[in-house]
Write a structure and sequence with these properties.
The chain is mainly beta. The chain is 14% helix and 42% strand.
Length: 132
């Protein structure tokens, strides 16, 4: 049996997300400039704790690339992927039981709207980024 804990630690939106993307990589300015005016980037900091699982095969975080949905359930396709330094990104890591990892994911979403994100573990896990 596999046991994984996945948490959303932080959500940076709009200008705050853009500033962080530019702090990560100056070349992200081109992605920001190309963005349709109806959209903005959000940076989501995620933590994964891999408690139990198969000791012989790693869990690859790239396979958990999130899908983003509006509140009506329609998927928001991600067309551009801003650069995040390897040591700060969530994806592209292989983990074994007993380890944990946290990092950022950049997503494109409509301005001033709520959404959910889904991570594909063995069953999808959904998070809302709305503060309650």
């Amino acid at each position: 049996m596999t046991t994984i804990k996945l948490s959303v630690l932080e959500v940076l939106k709009g200008k705050e997300a853009q500033d962080k993307l530019l702090e990560f990589e100056d070349s992200n300015q081109a992605d920001i400039d190309r963005l349709d005016s109806k959209y903005e980037y959000h940076l989501i900091k995620v933590k994964l704790v891999y408690e139990k699982g198969d000791e012989d095969y790693p869990l690859d975080t790239i396979e958990m690339f999130p899908r983003v949905f509006d509140l009506k359930g329609k998927e928001i396709k991600q067309e551009v992927f801003p650069s995040i330094p390897k040591e700060r990104m969530f994806l592209e890591y292989s983990l074994f039981p007993g380890t944990e990892h946290e990092g950022y994911i950049a997503i494109m979403v409509p301005k001033d709207s709520d959404y959910t994100i889904s991570f594909n573990l063995s069953d999808p896990v959904f998070f809302s980024t709305t503060k309650e």
